[in-house]
Amino acid sequence: MHKANISEERKKYLRSILIKKVSIKLTQIAIIIAFIVAWEVLAKKEIIDSFITSRPSRILETFINLSRNQLLMHLGVTCKETIIGFLLGTSIGIFVAIILWWSDFLSKVAEPFLVVLNSLPKVALGPIIIIWVGAGTGAIIVMGLAISLIVTIMEILNGFLETDKEKIKMAQTFNCSKLQLLTKIVIPANISTFINSLKINIGLTLVGVITGEFLVSKAGLGYLIVYGGQVFQLDLVMTGVIILATMATVLYGSVVLIEKLLSRTHKFG
Amino acid sequence: MEDLLKICKISKKYQAKNGEVDALKDISFEVKQGEFVSIIGPSGCGKSTLLSIIAGLEDKNSGTLYIDGEESSGISPKIGYMLQKDSLLEWRNIYKNVIFGLEIRKINTPENRKYVEELLKKYHLYEFKDKYPSQLSGGMRQRVALIRTLAIRPKILLLDEAFSALDYQTRLMVTKDIYEIIRNENVTTLMVTHDISEAISMSDRIVVLSKRPATVKTILDINFEMEVRNPLSVRESPKFSKYFDNIWKELDVNA
Ligand SMILES: Nc1ncnc2c1ncn2[C@@H]1O[C@H](COP(=O)(O)OP(=O)(O)O)[C@@H](O)[C@H]1O
Ligand SMILES: [Mg+2]
Description:
The structure holds 2 protein chains of 2 kinds. Chain A is an all-alpha fold. Chain A has 12 helices and no strands. Chain A has 2 domains: about 1-50; about 55-269, Orthogonal Bundle (MetI-like fold). Chain A has helices at about 10-45, 50-55, 55-70, 70-100, 105-120, 125-135, 135-160, 165-175, 180-190, 190-215, 220-230, 235-265. Chain B has helices at about 45-55, 95-100, 100-105, 110-120, 140-150, 170-185, 195-200, 240-255; strands at about 5-15, 20-30, 35-40, 60-65, 70, 80, 155-160, 190-195, 205-210, 215-220. In chain B, helix 5 (about 140-150) runs parallel beside helix 6 (about 170-185) and helix 7 packs across helix 8. Adenosine-5'-diphosphate (ADP) binds near residues 14, 23, 43 and 49 of chain B.
């Protein structure tokens, strides 16, 4: 597109879009700043009790202290558990979904079990997992898996089953085998299903890992938050929550980045 | 000339949870080498079912099917089936779409690829071979789908309302293009349509089916005695409206 070809109306239109975008961003930033400032000021004037609410300057202090000693370690532990849980959940989920897609009989048999497991609050499995796997990193990863796996299976199986019937029929006119159908039609047609499932999965695995850390761990962000609560150190709790939020954003952002890279080399619907 | 396709007393009942559907009853007709035959009949009478049986995608309940002199069951490599929707794969470029059938049938050989490239060149699609389906017009997509079907060098081409998704203008042009390709490549064709004009404009013979369960009502020979025949020019012929009335009445009696 050449700049010279853009008409006055078009310029106006583009500018109005840009202005809107910028003002939304600015408002968002302003809200955060206002919130932090209000929090700090109210705590300083002792209108709110900073023993219960903590305050931004002390959170920053805790953050700096933590980075001198343990923060990176805790962050690393949670990150590692989440990524292992995520990779396991995604690959096992895809594998099971493929098997269920392959056999209509198996998928009909599995359906009620999946529905029950899906609606069961997985935290309830905590004690069982701890007894079976032991109170350690293993249990935390299994907890992450427990939360993300069933959703992955259902999401991907659904996508597979909803593959355009016309495309399947077209492939069948060439006498295509089930394996060819899977690799040449169903999987490539479902790239966006995979991406969506990755997006959901990364969040769910993190939920599972933090739940697991609440229950058993000796390290990790979940542990840090629970520990902070137990010793009534709200500074620690707040710092942990903020780091966790940042980490969740970064993990989700990496999935979005993968999506962008994929869409550059691979067209999908 | 030899019967390339011979359909003998084919019947089909669908079994569904809420009952049986009688789709086809004792359908018989032949298609000779090099012929263009159309099947016309009211909507829902069983035309797609018949093509699917010939292609081997559906089982028949009774009757026999001969392809190139041999009794056939299952999916025959001698048949190319072009469906109503082009079903181009949006993640493959045009070239990769066109060789899809070769890949699936594991005959992606240099000779076959060369043949595909010739077809693409001959029908003005070669320069688009690296483009993706979404970048092509409806008419072009339909031509790509046809070349994908022809790539496996079928002896018989089946078309199931292959143009009905296109708007009227495009449809006339595409009909002409596709007709030229089919005649050039000398492919025997069996086409299903519910459009009387389309059937007359392209066919050597028209099989008129009754409403469901479909039986053969009549088989009509079409002959315009023209030197160069194409789907647009025959519409000018006085015979065209005669044929039209004929078929219209055959279909109407059933209604
Ligand atoms: N898989 C199926 N199961 C049950 N009934 C079917 C099935 N496919 C088609 N039918 C029924 O068979 C009849 C003929 O369908 P079809 O061959 O698609 O008609 P046409 O192509 O002439 O419009 C219709 O009544 C349709 O509802
Ligand atoms: Mg039909």
